[in-house]
Amino acid sequence: MSGTMQAMVIDRFGEPDVFRLAEIERPTAGPGQVVIRVAWAGVNPADWKARRGWLAQYFDYRFPFVVGFDAAGTIAEVGAGVTSFAPGDRVVTASNQGLGENGTYAQFVRSDVDRVAHLPGACPMDLAAALPTAGITAFEALFDVGRLEPGQRVLVNGGAGGTGSFAIRLAREAGARVAATARAANHDYLRALGAECAIDYRSGDVAWAVRAWAGDDLALVVDTVGQGTLLDAVDWVRPGGTVAPIGTLIAGEPAHDARRAAARGVRVVPTIASFERQGRQLRALVERLADGAFDTIALTRMTLGQAAEAHRLVEEGHVRGKIVMEVS
Length: 328
Fold this sequence. Notes:
The protein is of the alpha/beta class.
């Protein structure tokens, strides 16, 4: 199926005002792929980094380029060999944008089937669109890297953001105990997500608060903020525990002291989403979504035409939960 579609595109790298609405060629499904009619697109910090060209180390941009990793919608077309999806199926996807293809800020997006999951009818598409990048990254940090088990204590640095919000909910659903950092204005939100200890990183002594809550029994730190904000975390985690700093792509970012961590028997594992595990993780996340596990995550709903403003908000930081944009 061919034709055109509307999309928010960039013709060069730069500030949010490089976005423009354009009519471009609609994608077609190749073998093992589907084309999805996008209902909602999620907005992530990785999106503004893509807009600025920071992902050029991973793939070649082809202008006009469509930004966006996450979407929820319905199957519009299936490629050869695809038997698990049919036109009209409700789905959520971590799209092929990470491979250099056009992303989700468009009426249609192409995805490999291993990064697409069926979306049960009871799951709202706006919340589903918030799920892939932030949810998969949180899942990777907690379970594939952190090996989190029921009853263990975990600290989430930056708990009010997208990845932090999903990390708190996933950890609580797994039976772990959670502390999280955020501005004081977000502490009620952290508690609504399930954090039993909310720490004000601006005015409080984070190290003291963590020690008072966890003692010597902190198993895992998921650091969604980075930029040197929690380098002492290697001293807070118990021997055998893990610090999982989420990759930010920020050049020159301070790193945790690997020698100090090793001397204490603490693993430091820089964490990003893994293409090999994304499909399994996305399906596990959708199961939790269907069970209502993420109903307390805050959403700011915007439209595709507000992509520039959405990027300004995300790039400035301090968005509570996730921003999603209605497309169709």
